[in-house]
Amino acid sequence: MLRILGRTSSINVRKVLWTCHEIGIDYQREDWGRGFQPTSSPEFLALNPHGLIPVVVDGDTALRESNTICRYLAAKHGRHDLLPQDPAGRAKVEMWMDWQATELNASWMYAFHALSRNSPDHRDPARIAASVAGWNECMAILEPQLGDHWLLGDAFTLADIVLGLSVQRWLLTPFDKPGLPGVEAYYQRLRQRPAYLAHGNLGAA
């Protein structure tokens, strides 16, 4: 059985759990990370030398990086609706997944730690303001892409899983936000999916 190592409060673990639910994969999850088994242990570092969650173990295969794990699971189980088989369709999904993992994540990092986690290492008002501004700019980029359905049209894909959790984090982190009705409507559509309700709707941690 697939093993998933990571606590459910992690946004990156929730990506993997949500993907498993959409596909219908049975798994065994183990609590690792903040407040649980330490990711600095030799056992964990043998699977991920970076000491970060999630890690999945599928037989003899151990994988890290949440977006990579989601792509692996969709491809292995033939879910071409979530990750198209044709190169152009797959690239469009991966393009948004990569944007989420790089530009979008970089924008919110400081503000999230300051405003949601109350981190004592993230108290610089100027850096908080810059992070909030960058985060809002990224969400404004996303706004016109959403339309009346999913990010890439009628088909729900892995891009909606990774960006759906990012949208939730933006909405739940306390700061002034611009009016983005498309993002708000998209979030409400996500909340109609049983897999989101089971794994995505667990807070902003």
TrEMBL record:
Domain (GST C-terminal) spans: 86-205
GO MF terms, alphabetically ordered: transferase activity
InterPro entries per UniProt:
Glutathione-S-Trfase_C-like, Glutathione-S-Trfase_C_sf, Glutathione_S-Trfase, Glutathione_S-Trfase_N, Thioredoxin-like_sf
Pfam families in the record:
GST_C_2 (PF13410), GST_N_2 (PF13409)
Q: Which UniProt keywords apply?
A: Transferase
Tell me where on the tree of life, at the top rank, the source sits.
Answer: Bacteria
- Which Gene3D superfamilies does this one have? 1.20.1050.10, Glutaredoxin
Q: Which residues form the GST N-terminal domain?
A: 1-81
Cross-referenced PROSITE patterns: GST_CTER, GST_NTER
| CDD domains recorded | GST_C_2, GST_N_2
Instruction: Report the sequence similarity comment from the record.
Output: Belongs to the GST superfamily.
What name does UniProt use for this protein? Glutathione S-transferase
Species in which this protein is naturally found? Chromobacterium sphagni
